[in-house]
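Quick one, probably user error.
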């Protein structure tokens, strides 16, 4: 039987890990790229073991997903694992690696910090999408999903470089959605509410963000990676083929609460 595959960038934790588990439960083959130090190996290995219990193939690569050479090698390996009638159905971009510094002042961000953050958290979506589409293995019901944040339109202390990257990511989503619509491939950004992840805890002042969200969210709790994963589970269905070029809020009403 032909198998559907999902490529997940940033698979080892947070949103990427939750989405991988949801799609593995749906029978997807999981090809994940992550960039972790040795201390994270036990948790990454445990995730891989859990995904494999669902019966599908699971392939992880620990490397910088923003490297051109690494991307080309990863896609080559993916194709080797895919059977002739398998299809690439989903690309999830959940890379959370950027510089958190102010634009001006004593610790002002440098050019290299801004360019690295843009390349990893925004521009890499373009290159991965292009190269995967060019393999001719992405199905007509292909889904490209990119994790964005409220920082694309809201100013937080020291978040400037990442905010710029998220705004660029959303612009790339719109452009890719238009270019890929004739092929039946949809492209959307997912904007989760405040979620207590390792990436959030790197943001200075994250405690205040968490507390404010708990008080503000009309659903009475923070967003979880599982909330986002369940939306992805729905979005991969063929019935969502007309939904493209959007920033989809997944926050229990947090963004519209007074």
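Nope, works fine. Designed sequence:
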């Amino acid at each position: 039987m032909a198998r559907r595959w999902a490529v997940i960038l940033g698979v080892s934790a947070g949103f990427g890990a939750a989405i991988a588990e949801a799609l593995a439960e749906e029978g997807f083959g999981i090809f994940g790229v992550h960039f972790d130090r040795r201390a994270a190996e036990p948790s990454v290995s445990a995730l891989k073991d859990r995904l494999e219990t669902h019966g599908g193939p699971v392939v992880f690569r620990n490397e910088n997903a923003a490297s051109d050479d690494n991307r080309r090698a990863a896609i080559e390996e993916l194709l080797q694992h895919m059977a002739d009638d398998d299809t690439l159905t989903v690309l999830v971009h959940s890379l959370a690696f950027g510089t958190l510094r102010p634009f001006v002042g004593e610790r002002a961000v440098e050019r290299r910090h801004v360019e690295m953050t843009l390349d990893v958290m925004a521009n890499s979506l373009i290159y991965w999408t292009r190269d995967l589409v060019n393999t001719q293995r992405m199905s007509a019901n292909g889904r490209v999903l990119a994790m964005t944040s409220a920082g694309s339109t809201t100013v937080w202390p020291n978040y400037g470089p990442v905010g710029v990257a998220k705004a660029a990511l959303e612009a790339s989503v719109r452009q890719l959605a238009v270019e890929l619509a004739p092929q039946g491939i949809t492209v959307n950004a997912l904007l989760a509410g405040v979620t207590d992840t390792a990436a959030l805890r790197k943001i200075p002042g994250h405690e205040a963000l968490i507390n404010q969200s708990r008080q503000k969210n009309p659903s009475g709790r923070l967003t979880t990676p599982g909330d986002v994963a369940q939306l992805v589970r729905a979005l991969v269905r063929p019935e969502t083929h007309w939904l493209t070029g959007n920033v989809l809020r997944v926050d229990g009403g947090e963004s519209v609460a007074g």
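The chain has one domain: 4-256.
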